[in-house]
Amino acid sequence: MTANQPTIEERLSRLETLFVNVGEKVAQHDGNIDVLVANIQQLTENVAAVSQRVDELGEQTTRNINKLAIEAAQDRQQAAIDRQQAAIERQEFRNSINQILNYLRDRNGGSPPPQQ
């Protein structure tokens, strides 16, 4: 061995120091990995909960849309019935007006009612 070369004990000591440093870093990373795993598990649970809530909201929205579609159809049907009834009532009103006009005309001997 030359004077500049480290002894076996020095080399072993350096290797031991390196292994200790590597061991400490691995231990630190293990702690970080445990925290990351816990965070990932929590995020996974959160995503599952959000996904379930989105599904529930989607189903509720579908039910609401279907309910509104049924109500709109019923409203359209009722509007058609109301328009038909209004047309009947307008015709009845016209008939009543014509009867009154005919009565007044007949009462005046066929001439139009007097002007006021």
Question: Short description, anyone?
Answer:
It is built from 1 helix and no strands.
Largest sheet: none
| Helix coverage percent | over 70%
Roughly what is the average pLDDT, rounded to an integer?
91
Extract low-pLDDT stretches: none
Q: How large is the count of helical segments? A: 1
The percentage of residues in β strands lies in under 5%
State the end-to-end CA separation: 144 Å
Please trace the helix and strand order, writing H or E for each element.
H
- Rg for CA atoms: 48 Å
Number of strand elements: 0
Q: Quick one: overall form?
A: rod-shaped
What structural class results from the helix and strand content? mainly alpha
Describe this structure in words.
This protein is mostly helical and 116 residues long. The protein is 86% helix and 0% strand. It is rod-shaped and about 150 Å long.
What are the key terms here?
116 residues, mainly alpha, 86% helix
Topology:
Blueprint lengths: L7 H100 L9
